[in-house]
Amino acid sequence: MQKEKNIAIIGSGLVGSLLAIYLKKRGHSVTVFDRRQDVRTVEFSGRSINLAMSNRGWSSLRKVGIEEEIRKLALPLDKRALHVNNTPLYFQKYGKEGEAIYSISRGILNRKMIDLAEEAGVVFKFEEKVWDIKLPEAKIYTGESEKGVWQEYQFDIVFGADGAFSRVRHKMQRQSRFNYSQNFIDVGYKELTIPANEDGSHKLDPTSFHIWPRGEFMLIAMPNLNGSFTCTLFLPFEGEVSFESIKSEEQAEQFFSTYFPDIMQDISNLMRDFFKNPTSAMVTMKCFPWTYWDKVALVGDSAHAIVPFYGQGMNAGFEDILVLDNLIEEYEDDWERIFKEYQSSRKPNADAIAELSYRNFIEMSSKTANPAFILRKKIEKHFAEKHPDIWVPLYSRVTFSDKPYAEALAIGDRQRAIMDEVMKLQNVDKIWDSLEVENYILEALNKTAKV
Amino acid sequence: MQKEKNIAIIGSGLVGSLLAIYLKKRGHSVTVFDRRQDVRTVEFSGRSINLAMSNRGWSSLRKVGIEEEIRKLALPLDKRALHVNNTPLYFQKYGKEGEAIYSISRGILNRKMIDLAEEAGVVFKFEEKVWDIKLPEAKIYTGESEKGVWQEYQFDIVFGADGAFSRVRHKMQRQSRFNYSQNFIDVGYKELTIPANEDGSHKLDPTSFHIWPRGEFMLIAMPNLNGSFTCTLFLPFEGEVSFESIKSEEQAEQFFSTYFPDIMQDISNLMRDFFKNPTSAMVTMKCFPWTYWDKVALVGDSAHAIVPFYGQGMNAGFEDILVLDNLIEEYEDDWERIFKEYQSSRKPNADAIAELSYRNFIEMSSKTANPAFILRKKIEKHFAEKHPDIWVPLYSRVTFSDKPYAEALAIGDRQRAIMDEVMKLQNVDKIWDSLEVENYILEALNKTAKV
What we know:
Chain A is built from 14 helices and 21 strands. Chain A is an alpha+beta fold. In chain A, helix 1 packs parallel to helix 8, helix 2 runs parallel beside helix 8 and helix 9 runs parallel beside helix 12 (405-422).
């Protein structure tokens, strides 16, 4: 058992709430600060992409005993449904039988996590803004405004769980030798909704992750428990077809009818959301170090914000907490060691999922509808099914396993090199499921294994 | 002639002062703010690497009519002097006859630039700290402390010339879609001094840039007008031979006598400096955009800080000002256009010199003493002398020309690929000046030109 510490967590989002539950259950005194209102008392903002909980997320919830509670809020999706104009709906299974990602609303999940943390005895201080932090002393300063009167709090340990634009990291960033980068992509996103049928049922298959890939842009839709779908439109900020180019209702209607004719029945809803909801930006943020002595540590987006195209942002953040807790078990009261091991083991994995997420941004929008890409996936799947012990597809390794992201990236790169060669084989579209192709891959695997 | 504007420049360093002179001569009202004391009234800090003024720097001083004044403060260096243990001193010419870089003390230069700006009519406000800036309004806020009472100033245009840790950029950085990165290298530096002989003469050749390459670390020395040399020791922060590993006087003496026996006569001086002067970090900082409407622009290190290994930091910053002034001539009162063109033309060049400087960090410390590297340079030089119209060495293009850095990087990469192949030729160390090698390079150039 660890010695009880007085711990502050800045940020009551998903990762902050989960960390609070873990620490409380280990016997610490835990206070969570958030500059915003209690999410349980506000209407949702219309700027959230639905979450896709997968293996790492569930593992992290399971260890602290709240997996079953959360499962009740989620819908399993075992496949992609591809909406390509003038082509029948096409399905791609995500993994093996029984493997699925789980659609869950960010707002609903966050409210539940805070409820669970409060039940465990965590204290929440909402609408209390942290303006400064003394890193070596674990002191934080809160107040109405940056220039107003501040209140000082003394803690033993402070965690920054305050997201991509973290105030805690902001303070760490002003140290010498702190590495940092933030890179925005030129594509923005907007939340739209497809309402339920009148009888409360879903208008599209509720066991699929729906994608309308359109080259430079795409629409996705994930089901909610109430029969609606939360859609996200990913579209360049500027350019020929872009958020900038859609200013009037006419332009919006033209846009939806041209590119998304199969959901035109909900056009009035889509149009209202389009002009009501904000357009948001997406950023990849990396930094190092993540910790300061045994006093301060960053978790989740404040340490590693990624673009959402692998559905791993929350899962990676939850896994941070699982890793931290495993280290707490190992090193008990040696917080300096816990923090050192946490950042050195976690950083390469955070970098890897950042890279994979960025690559998926390219892949999802421009390649999912491409026949060569579909063939490639088919060959890979066929081979993986025959040789599950030597070929785990990259997506499965990221989504349905607990293997380190960095390992997934490295193995994925090797697989990609092999598939690049396979796709050059003569008549590969005809012989894709032949013994010849299978042996080719086996031989290639054999060769690279020796390198 | 432009309409007179009321312009603030934040930062009275080299680039800020030069910009002030340019803008004043164009008829604007110019106020320079600096949070620090007037550099003319303080002792130097012992944390400065001597500067190497080269072609771009001189061009920028020439256009505003202050080149000759500054030349008086500088010493020409036309070659490297390589100090390798157990090997005679070896010299490498930098360029063609008459080409040289110029050693100049940062402190002396900065004092002179401020004098010249004041003579031109620029107003300086030292020890006035800028804490905030309203970007769309070009308003700045100064005061004793961040939380104290602030004074508001309204300007037409504000320039951030406040260095790698710019407060102006810091404000821009909090906008959405602002890209930013800071990456520290694991090597630090410390200023040391080799004093003049008693008769005021230099102890080492004063027309050379002296290097003691030692693999993981190195020492450099550049002459001053007063007979002394400003040395810079570049050494890893941590590791076997590192700043961290040299704690006692004994360890320092051991270090200098092992690695730098030829300057042991000055050991007492070196040791005193070693323990008196701070150890500084080096960072590559990139960001974008550099401007906000027609209101705010970043120049010099605040827009693009680089590691010092190509001696181009100041030169690149001065060139920013030259480019800005050329655009002012072209677009007159259209400041929005001026700023747009400035950032879009300058950004790729800033990225290129950042990359080249980082590569030189690797090259200078680990390769300059390497026989294969010396042979390679010899072959390149030989070929360049015979074919000066088709082969300008990378170093010369960066240092002795006004050609864009991005072009230098691209052409340098092509040359490198060719030289990689040349170095694989059989017996190249024997036939390096043969017609065979010459023709090989000519043919390779011919081929890549067609790509």
